[in-house]
Amino acid sequence: MLLPILAALLAVPAGVTVSTANSVATGDQDTAAVATNRNGDVAVVWEDDRAESNPGDNTNSEIYVRLFRNGTSAYEKKLSAGGTAGVPWKHVNPDVGLDDKGNAVVVWNDEPDGNGVFNVVYRVISPAGTILGQGRVNADTAGQQLTPKVAVDPDGTPSSPSAVAFSVVWEDVQGSLTTIRAAGYTNVATKAYEVVASQSTGAHHRPDIAVSASGDATIVWDEDSDGNGFYQIGLVRLAKANGAVTLSRRAANLNGGGQQVRPAVAANFTGDFVVAWQSDHTATPGIWERSFTAAGDPRHGDVEVTNAAGAAAPAVGIDDQANAVVGWTAAGVDVWARGFNRDGTTAGRLPAQTYSGTTTGRQDQLGLAVSAWGEIAVCYTDDNDGNQYDQVLLALGGSNSTW
Fold first, then answer.
1. Considering Cα of 252, then 378, then 58, then 110, what sign does the dihedral take?
2. What is d(CA 83, CA 61) in angstroms, rounded to the nearest whole number?
3. Does the pTM of the predicted model rise above 0.85?
4. Would you list the domain boundaries of the chain?
5. What CA–CA distance (Å, rounded) separates 279 from 346?
6. Record: fold of 7-399
7. Residue 75 burial (CB < 10 Å; 0-12/13-18/19+)?
């Protein structure tokens, strides 16, 4: 294992420790995601191209996951299975979720035969690091299935205490038509539904998903159902049992105009949720957020998180008091986070704070998760020496409080 980077020497919040998530530093590791649960577990997943001699090429990349239990590594595991020899196979765009028992679910874009056509696959991993189940999520392999995201029901399926329940969302590209599809599982191999989550007309991209203890899936995405080239943040909720719409399709953003894109969503145990996104409706690009009750009622209007130059690619987390943390990348060279109360105010919450472990080189591709008690886990890609080979850093010990 690589030695931890001493937080006292770095520009991170007090009490935060930054370490390298990947234990093997050769080659290129990037495109990470992070998840946490109510019992101190943190899971990190990433693309690992440790044999690559060209850091800009993700051919032959694999998917790895590592689980930390109360800050200590419990396991690290390769989940993908390579591909056909002699062809440019790849496994990319991973995401991860955790339930409160410590089961992890990982999804990614899978292309093991080098034909350029991607599917979405999943693995379910036990708290001890054993593969409990795996499969392809999308039923139809036609077209392209891209940018998958996963969210895990924190308490599984009540009628089956050992069950691992989760929901997956992705882009389904069929020629010139792109829609958002979603699938729900009530156990490792029990697929309850697969449906179109977005409108069926126009263009729809970059979905994200969150699941509360109800198991219903709250989904957001770039939505242009009327095809006019201007995007809103689409929002819908689907029932755990059958994918029926339980919160009607609508815009998560209040302010129109310009482009509203790249949404992120997080939900807490009781179903309160928060959405963050990029917007340029004020003529100054920035990051915005909006908080909602479990019933889908907005708690406040659109709140500007930051309009710092180059702020992009938001990530978001929420605790059980519905306080939120929004993260972003600044001009592709630093990662930041800022805390909010449930009403959109900031008193007593984490002030805008860099999480970059160094002021040199590039830190980007931020992932962020918040526990039920406001504990913040951040992961990001780091290339502080400028050699184009990335590592995945994990920052633990943060809190969404100034108390």
1. negative
2. 10
3. yes
4. 7-399
5. 20
6. Neuraminidase (2.120.10)
7. middle
